[in-house]
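Quick one - first record:
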Amino acid sequence: MGDEQIKRLRAIEEENPRQKMALADLAMDSQIIEECSRVKTAPASIERA
């Protein structure tokens, strides 16, 4: 491997954890939004019963 390839590999290795953390944050945001939408619709369905 050349010096440039090694530098690029190290840069990618440093970037990878940040991207994984960003993806985890987005997944958690999505779960929170989904849960909030379920909570808002739950009382209406309970009242109809």
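second record:
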Amino acid sequence: MKTLSATALSLVITATQALASGGENHEGMGLLTTFFIAFAVLIILFQMVPGLSLFVGMLKGIFSSERREKEVVGGK
């Protein structure tokens, strides 16, 4: 019984070490993963274009309203 327990324990320890090691042939990211990340980056970039145009329009509106108020006040 003692021999069986020692054998089983040594097999479990060896198997967990073998499963924990990553192996020699680590390929990195696959092709689909690269395409998915590139697609996500493109979505973010294309969403920035309308956002930046709205931001520029907001800045134009803020600075042009100050000029209009000065013209209206100066005209009275």
